[in-house]
Hints:
alpha/beta; Rossmann fold; six-stranded mixed β-sheet; 10 strands; globular; binds adenosine-5'-triphosphate; binds magnesium ion
Amino acid sequence: MLQANQLIKRYESDGAIQTVLHGLDLHIKQGEFVAIMGASGSGKSTLLQLLGGLDKPTHGDVFLEAVNLGSMSERERTLIRRRKMGFVFQNYQLLPTLTVEENVAFPLYSDGRSRTETISRVHELLEQVGLKEQMRSFPSKLSGGQQQRVAIARALSLKPGLILADEPTGNLDRKRGQEILQLLARLHREEGLTVVMVTHDIYAAGFADRIITMQDGRITQEVGKVAKSNDQRLENFVAKFNT
Ligand SMILES: Nc1ncnc2c1ncn2[C@@H]1O[C@H](COP(=O)(O)OP(=O)(O)OP(=O)(O)O)[C@@H](O)[C@H]1O
Ligand SMILES: [Mg+2]
């Protein structure tokens, strides 16, 4: 579903060139849940931004369902991003002046969906993430975990097949983080959603089918298929990770 070929990303600042990704290859299959781990500064967010077409590689290509993001116009890329991908960030990025339901409705509205479709989809999503009662609240009145659930509902509003999440549990305590991970895992399992999640947290990564680790802009390790049973999951993962 998502393929990166020989991705190189360089940044130039004050005449100095820094190479952040060094020719990275990656293939993510439809319906996979992949975690990307690595130290701070190893290039995880940069990679996610390139995969999501939010930024362009210096060299190399990203294909979404065999379509090259780099060959599209900015307008086409915006549409693809909106309809085929959902983004979730560490700091939720909700619009503070809009209520919960308005935040979730925003992509539908931007995409020109009818009033009836928008309202029924928003209600369905808020039901799914367990926030129907808070739909008229403003984000500042919600806990971090609730805000992230709104962000996930918003990301799913146009029914994308792919979620790109950058440290979605980074601002949450273990319990709230676990709720978010369980929600992503359920969407992955029940709706066949493809999830690519950057995380620092080995516990969060244990929810994935495959874990990719990065170091200095390169993929250094891949760990496949971790156990799906909840109690065994983390132990099996850690055991594999350490071999
Ligand atoms: N817009 C930019 N301009 C210049 N350098 C950048 C830019 N964005 C990122 N970098 C540099 O690229 C490197 C990788 O950054 P990136 O944000 O991808 O790391 P990360 O793995 O997500 O780190 P963290 O875990 O701290 O979020 C860092 O050295 C960073 O300073
Ligand atoms: Mg980052």
